[in-house]
């Protein structure tokens, strides 16, 4: 299996390279340049030209690409023009928020989806099962931003249970217990809305897996030996159905990161998704390219992770 | 006596012949009242929206700015659903927006599915190098953060309207269809009837599109329906973020995007809530119909 893993990692390198080339060319085609934003009526046009030359704006694209990719490989993605600081440190700060949100959501997804999936499968075709299936159907069909807005409207503005924007209140000292509690409090509503949409796949999978398992020979054997149904579920069915669920982890994380554009825009949550939208609007190329590369890398990593977990927990599936 | 027997044989025949595609679908919808309700409801809704768009709504009058009517509440001064920040009639905008969103989604679905289905069948039928070549491209794009790349491409295009938006989104939507069709075509292309066709000297093109395609149709109907729902979601999502249609041409997404203004979100519900509910109803309805079709296509899941 390790051979396959290494091969997959080796395939990731050309994939990332093509992605980098693609995104670099696309970013170069964008109208305007970051310096356009700096022009005010009293700036000297020559000064802007000087900045452009200094940043290598007039070099041929392959030289610009070479410079960019060699720096990027060393972790230097240039400077953000609108935020006036290195891209790496800018993204670093936002990434912590996005990862905190994603982690909290992943935990919630599994906490919600596993019991619901098991209950739906166990009490298959009852009222409870139908309700759970309906819930998972709605969470599959509903567009993310509509649900988020309704949640902000109901829980944020009407009931006023949760804050509606930001990741932490101003005026709290980092490092104090209150600061972290406040951060967590800001995480609750987006995290929950986020998690509700991520449960569908796991619920559906667990449900059908358990319904299938009911007719399996090993369950019949266990029953005929006189083991109570409760124990058959907890010892046999549950354990067999649960392992492949772990493989959803990679896809869940990738899905959550991709969806961060919507959730962070609606909740005005300062993470990478919101940073991406802001950077597009201000034509901040260095930030855009770095973010797409990072998301692409994480997506590739996520699918690799899922394949690896799947091949470990389910010997029937071998990835080679 | 002989006549009677013949009749009995005929009866027997008609009873034992398996129901054809359309009968299975009808039976499935009859059994599932909610799916029946969805398909009738969605159809009525779309016809109603199109009727209002083409015969009742004065598009120029709707988009005219009238600051006196700023944030008029619903039901006041002839505004059925009130007015937005610029005093434009929300009901009219909702109809125009829905028409735009639905046409864009139809356009994306058509283009992406024609490309996806054609490529998928070719890949599945020929296999080998062609299959490998396109699979690598598809694998590459499927793992990418597509939404981000679509946004970057949209910002590059100098002039864009409905058609440019359709092309750009469709360019990233054909891969999953192609992959699905390919996997089905791959097993179907090894069947005896295909080999028989080949030995009879039928051209590859005829086998693929007259022999193979009809046998994948049940799968394709499901795929097209569900991808239509998905495309409504993508278009409205992009417009919501501000990367879809320009604000002067309303879409359901741009109407919901008014809610990004906290004042509108918290106290002017009539500006954003109707569009949100319309998106919700459309998505749930189309998906429900898609699920019912999926059950009809898969004998194991059928209710009826």
Provide a compact summary of the structure.
With 320 residues, chain A is mainly α.
Describe this entry's structure for a reader.
- The complex is a heterodimer of chains A (320) and B (304).
- Chain A is 73% helix and 1% strand.
- Chain A is built from 13 helices and two strands; from the N terminus they run αααββαααααααααα.
- Chain A has helices spanning 2-29, 45-54, 61-73, 87-122, 127-141, 144-158, 177-198, 200-214, 217-224, 229-242, 248-266, 272-281, 285-313; strands at residues 79-80, 85-86.
- In chain A, helix 4 (87-122) runs antiparallel to helix 5 (127-141).
- Chain A starts with a helix and ends in a 7-residue tail after the last helix.
- The model of chain A has no long low-confidence stretch (mean pLDDT 81).
- By secondary structure, chain B is mostly helical.
- Helices cover 75% and strands 0% of the residues of chain B.
- Chain B has helices at 2-16, 21-31, 33-56, 59-62, 90-126, 128-143, 146-156, 162-171, 174-188, 192-199, 204-215, 217-241, 252-257, 262-267, 269-297.
- Chain B is elongated, with a radius of gyration of 24 Å.
- The chains are: A mainly alpha (320), B mainly alpha (304).
- Chains A and B meet through helix 1, helix 5, helix 6, helix 11 and helix 12 of A and helix 7, helix 12, helix 14 and helix 15 of B.
Record the SSE blueprint:
The complex is a heterodimer of chains A (320) and B (304).
Chain A: H1 2-29, H2 45-54, H3 61-73, E1 79-80, E2 85-86, H4 87-122, H5 127-141, H6 144-158, H7 177-198, H8 200-214, H9 217-224, H10 229-242, H11 248-266, H12 272-281, H13 285-313
Helix pairs in contact in A: 1-13, 4-5, 4-7, 4-8, 4-11, 5-8, 6-7, 6-11, 7-11, 8-10, 9-10, 11-12, 11-13, 12-13
Chain B: H1 2-16, H2 21-31, H3 33-56, H4 59-62, H5 90-126, H6 128-143, H7 146-156, H8 162-171, H9 174-188, H10 192-199, H11 204-215, H12 217-241, H13 252-257, H14 262-267, H15 269-297
Helix pairs in contact in B: 2-15, 3-5, 3-15, 5-6, 5-8, 5-9, 5-12, 5-15, 6-9, 10-11, 12-15
């Amino acid at each position: 299996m390790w051979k396959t893993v290494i091969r997959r990692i080796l395939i990731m390198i050309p994939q990332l390279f093509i992605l980098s080339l693609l995104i670099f060319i696309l970013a170069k085609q964008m109208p305007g340049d970051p310096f356009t934003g700096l022009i005010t009526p009293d700036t000297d046009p020559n000064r802007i030209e000087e900045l452009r030359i200094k940043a290598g704006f007039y070099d041929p694209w392959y030289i610009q690409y070479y410079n960019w990719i060699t720096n990027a490989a060393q972790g230097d993605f240039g400077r953000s023009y609108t935020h006036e600081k290195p891209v790496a440190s800018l993204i670093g700060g936002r990434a912590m928020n996005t990862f905190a949100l994603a982690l909290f959501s992943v935990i919630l997804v599994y906490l919600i989806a596993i019991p619901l999936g098991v209950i739906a499968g166990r009490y298959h075709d009852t009222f409870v099962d139908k309700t759970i299936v309906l819930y998972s159907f709605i969470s599959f069909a509903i567009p993310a931003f509509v649900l988020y807005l309704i949640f902000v409207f109901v829980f944020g503005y009407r009931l006023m249970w949760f804050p509606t924007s930001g990741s932490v209140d101003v005026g709290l000292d980092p490092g104090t217990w209150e600061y972290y509690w406040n951060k967590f409090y800001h995480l609750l509503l987006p995290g929950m809305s986020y998690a509700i949409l991520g449960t569908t796949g796991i619920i559906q999978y667990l449900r059908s897996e358990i319904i299938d398992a009911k007719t399996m020979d090993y369950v019949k054997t266990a029953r005929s030996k006189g083991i109570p149904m409760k124990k058959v579920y907890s010892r046999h069915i549950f354990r067999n159905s649960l392992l492949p669920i772990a493989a959803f982890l990679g896809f869940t994380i990738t899905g959550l990161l991709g969806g961060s554009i919507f959730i962070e825009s609606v909740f005005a949550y300062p993470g990478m998704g919101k940073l991406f939208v802001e950077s597009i609007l201000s034509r901040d190329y260095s930030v855009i390219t770095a973010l797409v590369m990072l998301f692409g890398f994480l997506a590739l990593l996520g699918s690799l992770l899922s394949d690896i977990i799947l091949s470990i927990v389910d010997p029937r599936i071998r990835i080679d | 006596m002989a006549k009677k027997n013949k009749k009995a044989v005929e009866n027997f025949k008609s009873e034992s012949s398996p129901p054809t595609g359309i009968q299975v679908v009808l039976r499935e919808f009859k059994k599932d009242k909610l799916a029946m309700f969805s398909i009738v409801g969605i159809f009525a809704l779309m016809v109603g929206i199109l009727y209002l768009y083409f015969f009742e709504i004065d598009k120029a009058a709707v988009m005219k700015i009238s600051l006196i009517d700023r944030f008029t509440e619903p039901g006041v001064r002839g505004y059925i659903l009130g007015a937005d920040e610029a005093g434009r009639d929300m009901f009219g905008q909702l109809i125009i927006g829905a028409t735009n969103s639905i046409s864009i989604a139809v356009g994306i679905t058509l283009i992406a599915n024609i490309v996806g289905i054609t490529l998928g069948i070719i890949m599945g039928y020929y296999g080998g190098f062609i299959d490998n070549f396109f699979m690598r491209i598809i694998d590459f794009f499927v793992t990418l953060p597509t939404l981000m790349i679509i946004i970057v491409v949209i910002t590059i295009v100098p002039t864009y309207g409905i058609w440019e938006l359709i092309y750009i989104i469709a360019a990233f939507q054909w891969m999953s269809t192609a992959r699905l069709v390919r996997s089905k075509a791959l097993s179907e292309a090894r069947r005896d009837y295909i080999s028989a066709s080949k030995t009879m000297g039928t051209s590859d093109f005829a086998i693929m599109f007259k022999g193979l395609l009809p046998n994948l149709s049940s799968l394709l109907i499901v795929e097209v329906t569900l991808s239509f729902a998905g495309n409504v979601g993508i278009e409205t999502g992009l417009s919501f973020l501000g990367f879809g249609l320009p604000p002067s041409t309303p879409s359901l997404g741009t109407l919901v995007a008014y809610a990004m203004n906290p004042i509108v979100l918290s106290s002017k519900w009539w500006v954003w809530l109707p569009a949100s509910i319309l998106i919700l109803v459309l998505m749930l309805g189309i998906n429900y119909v898609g699920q019912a079709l999926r059950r009809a296509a898969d004998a194991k899941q059928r209710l009826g």
